[in-house]
Amino acid sequence: MTNHWVDLRNADVVLVMGANPASNHPISMKWIMEARNRGGKLVVVDPRFTQTAAKADLYTPLRSGTDIAFLGGMIKYIIDNNMYFRDYVVNYTNAAFLVNPDFKTPSQLDGVFSGYDEKTRKYDKKTWAYQMDANGVAQKDLTLKDPNCVFQLLRKQYARYTLDKVSSITGTPKDKLEDVYKVVGSTGKPNRVATVCYAMGWTQHTVGVQNIRAFSMIQLLLGNMGMAGGGINALRGESNVQGSTDYGLLFHILPGYNPTPTATVVDLKTYIEKFTPKTKETRSVNWWGNRPKYITSYLKAIYGDKATKENDFGYDWLPKVDEGTNYSWLNLFDQMFKGKFEGFFAWGQNPACSGANANKVRNAMAQLKWMVNVNLYDNETGSFWKGPGMDTKAIQTEVFMLPCASSIEKEGSISNSSRLAQWRYKAIEPVGQSMPDAEIMNELYFKVKKLYQKEGGKFPAPILNLTWNYGEKEAQGKVKHLDTHMVAMEINGYYLEDIYDKTQTPPKLIGKKGELCTNFVSLQADGTTSCGNWIYSGSYTQKDGKVINMMARRVKDDPTGLGLYAGWAWAWPLNRRIIYNRASVDPNGNPWDPKRAVIKWNPTKENPATNKPGLWEGDVPDGPAAPLSDEKGGKLPFIMRADGVGAIFGPGLADGPFPEHYEPLECPLQENPMSKKHRINPTVKLFFGKEGGLAEDVFYSCDTRYPFVCTTYRVTEHWQTGVMTRHVPWLMEAQPQMFVEMSNELAKERGIKNGEKVTVSSARGSLWAVAVVTDRFKPFKVMNTTIHQVGIPWHFGWQFPVDGSGGESANLLTPTIGDPNTMIPESKAFMVNIEKAKG
Amino acid sequence: MARASLLISPELCIGCRACQIACKSWNQLPGDKTVNRGSFENPADLTPDLYNKIRFVEVPSENNPVRWLFVSQRCMHCDDAGCMKICPAPGALYKTKEGAVAFNKDKCIGCKLCSSACPFNVPRYDKNDKVSKCNLCADRIANNMAPACAKTCPTGAISFGDRDALISKAQKAGYAAVYGQADLGGLGAIYAFHDAPKLYGLADKPVIPEMVVFWHKYLKPLSWIGIGGTAALMLLHYVAIGPKKDQEDKDDE
Amino acid sequence: MNRSDLITKESTFGIINHWALAISCIVLTISGFGFLFQIQGIGSAFSGFPAMKVVHNWTGVVFTASLFLSMFNWLKESLTFDSDDIGWILTAGGYLSHKAKVPPMHKLNTGQKFFYLTLLVSGFAIAATGFIIWLMPENKSMLVLSHFIHNVSFIVITAFIPVHIYLSTLGNPGTLRIMITGKIPYWWAKKKHPKWVRELEEGHGN
């Protein structure tokens, strides 16, 4: 989230699209309902009339996988009707930037942007660049009239997204479409703000990233980024999934969103050169320019004294990935299926049910020599070898079960969607032999380290040089019990020397050797500071010699009245509650909307840090620099971007600088109504196609055998694959079985009665489900044909309840295909068939 | 303490059923084995182990595919409680000082009469034939805590507090008539909504069965009058007219 | 036959039947009042209401069985009426005036017959509804109706109890012995039940 949960109440319009907070984020509805109570409007766009839709002021359906068409139409509507916030767009976005005249949009090139190579399915982004002036700064046309400026390109790109066209793609009635555009567009005024709540309904598509970008662009057009009650808000589906990405659980990032080095990035210098953005724009803060400090401090945190200037701070010990190789989920299991893996830690997950195309995943695990299942309960993954359709005798995989402690049996922090790190305490001792994950890792680490010490091995240095100062040690050096406070302190970082601010005369002492860092502003690139994750620097800090766990704070004061609650726990970065908040003020530093002033520039108040007049009041600002209009030190608001402005034109993505509508891998249409040549996203990696591929990855689009659009989702009572919740009888009582929701029209067509068992099948698998026949699904009118859509939850699995009464995983049906940027699987739009269950 | 009650606002309810589960958790009620019956609503009805259930109701709508209503179904804690009227066992059903209709399984005789006198079809019986229903978390409110359902509700669709204050809160929020404000002496679970009560599965005018009321009002006192009256008559006869004496018979003979 | 010779008015079976009815009726009445008015003292005497319910139900079984068997003892006689019964009613059985000329009665006088029939009807009503309450509580409207009828019958039966006790003890000294020994003196029988005695003497009495 750019904003935070409580902030939802400050919105005039809450658009919920690709999410169902009433079911899956019920607490968020507290704030959404509060927004409504204050006169705000809740707008819900979803294929199904959800529990959230039941509370909406305006609901409209759309066919799964057509969000870009819907939002592209919105962009057109906002531009055509002059609903955008011109001052904001001109000053704070790249709308005025001039793009290379050779740049072409899909409207000109039948579905692709300029630079597309059909063979590699990749773009050469040469033409996606700005026209630079002599100083190396992008040229601009502040009148937004130049045909090559971003704004005019945007207009051109979405000229095709007319109400009629959009309606025929999405199946949304035209009047409803216009209603939504009007309501959202109404927030293009300084005193009106819209927010968006999205979740997997936007991300799990082959155009997932572009779905989110499309609305980010709208938020920039309407001037809603950085505003209280605005922003782009991902409702994270797991209590600590924000933490998991912050800490680099994904293959391509190290903690703090530093890129994972590739094999071609041979040393730290090259790394810094390659990954540190540069700009000639003097008004840009370009915060990522600090990358050298963060990566060096990170290396110091993990390798400690072993990391020296001479050995490149141990950069060589960091694992490197192969250039151009994607190590995300679909590829990992594809490789596992092909026998490329020996072992697998399934840690806190249940791939046998959570992995797209789960049959393939289950068979992939059969190729393993060993598997370690770390979980609260045995699950479909640990017991995969005795699952349905498995040739148990032929499977040689040795499975180890390590029972781990639940969240209430251990102490530590979690980071929620608001980027809020909250410290939590242990309520009860772990049950039986189960251990907190960190304790299991502690055990593993010392066993592995011992082996390396004894046997040497191929590359012992990364393990032998790793710091592990997480508690009292035994004689042999093993940490007896892992202290999460010490982990948190390592993450915050230490001053390894006395640090001085050398810009001042005489140099001013910033931090004393051995003390915890104040925050990331004081981190150094020369190895004199350590920090495990720069964005969390400041979360466990030291003031006047006293150590303070900022995440454990529980102050309920709210001086701004905006619900920032700055004294409650701690939000990264720097306890900032609304990021990009410098965009909430005009170039003079006055709030666009004084009634919800996130920050405000006070030009006369003295800044205690600099002893000069001029101070931001309110939330922690995005940097202390003076507002844009200040001729000496004024800075642009989007400090994480090299050019300092919001990116309406986004050349960073794999599939285009503007979102373009493509159909899902499996869809009911023969061709893309927007461009005949490219039905699906032209940059996705195809696991199956004309060039061959595994039979397991087969897909059938526009095939009469699988005529219905299907999407997956969650219910309140269950969590993910249901491993935790299926063992709770209370929850099973309320939501006991796999079901499929469908319209009355479809049920009638197929002779299906409410409550009876049906078979749902796709190209890749089938399962039984109880038919929930309801008016909450309605057939769509798409390209003059009737399209039915159904929906299934993905919480069930064969292993529990043991009598099989729960049903099977929805992922038996989902395809092996992912977004070209993130490789997130397309679980939200695929094709199925529904029949009455036999027997 | 003044009378406390629940204010249930279905228009704020999002159907998350946190209250349904929290109730089970606090009261340590087992989960029953159920099946999906073609609805999110489950179990089908209140059970001895289900004190509070969210009903999912789909009704036609003008602007949308459907209207989907969510409402908590449970003991209404009537001031004039039919169950307590008819209950033969003292202390089996009782009023707490906050006005909750609570129960004591040790004192329940398992006659099930309460279930027949309830205007809302609420009391259920456990496997030992003991009464089982929402007791407004009497143990929690006695310790100044809100009932589990109200405590856990994320949107304030169930709130708990001083009854008069809740009524004026609802009125201020634009609900002219609060369901249960005056019915049955005033319910301890009052509802704020703009629709007809029957849309939410509630009777327009909830009443205790007439026969129960008649019995309570007239038959019960008549029982004393019957036995006491005839006994008095007999005494009067003995004094005023006197018994038929054996001796007289002999004289006749 | 001498005037003081004893003749049998009630069989042993009849006596046992009577007392089974009487005792069960009294137990049911007392516990019934306990339930009706939630009288703690009565409940305690039965060691608690749950136990009292068990006693009440099973005593109800005894009562019902006794009532059923009673039909073999008193039903036929109770259903036999003639013009003297009208006379008995007109003279109120002589209870309102010792001077009144009461018509001759059979083995049971009109009052006794009516008492028995009332007991029989309300007894079966209370028994049947009792069993419904006990065994078929699932049908709510049936339960309410049964509970209602149970109580109407209760009022009738309990109202008759003082009358019956009074007339068989203080009101008619000497009557009680019928239900103890089963025998009454000849003169007493002739006085009270002349038609029955005549039949006995004519040899076709029972």
Could you explain the architecture of this structure?
- The complex is a heterotrimer of chains A (839), B (253) and C (206).
- In chain A, 21% of the residues lie in helices and 17% in strands.
- With 839 residues, chain A is α/β, with parallel strands linked by helices.
- In chain A, the strands form twelve sheets. In chain A, strands 27-29-28-33-26-32 form a six-stranded mixed beta sheet. In chain A, strands 3-2-1-6-7 form a five-stranded parallel beta sheet. In chain A, strands 10-11-12 form a three-stranded parallel beta sheet, with no helix packed on it.
- In chain A, helix 3 crosses helix 7, helix 3 runs parallel beside helix 9 and helix 13 packs across helix 15.
- Chain A is globular, with a radius of gyration of 27 Å.
- With 253 residues, chain B is α+β, with helices and mostly antiparallel strands.
- Chain B has a three-stranded mixed beta sheet with strand order 8-1-9. Chain B has a two-stranded antiparallel ribbon with strand order 2-3.
- In chain B, strand 4 and strand 5 form a beta hairpin.
- Chain B is elongated, with a radius of gyration of 24 Å.
- By secondary structure, chain C is mainly α.
- Chain C has one domain: Transmembrane di-heme cytochromes, Chain C (Fumarate Reductase Cytochrome B subunit).
- Chain C has eight helices and two strands, in the order E-H-H-H-H-H-H-E-H-H.
- Chain C has a two-stranded antiparallel sheet.
- The model of chain C has no long low-confidence stretch (mean pLDDT 88).
- At the B-C interface, helix 3, helix 7 and helix 8 of B face helix 1, helix 3, helix 6 and helix 7 of C.
Overview in brief:
The complex is a heterotrimer of chains A (839), B (253) and C (206). Chain B has 253 residues and is of the alpha+beta class. Chain B has helices at residues 18-27, 82-86, 113-117, 138-141, 148-152, 163-172, 210-240, 246-252, and strands spanning 4-8, 53-59, 67-73, 93-95, 101-103, 124-125, 131-132, 158-162, 189-191.
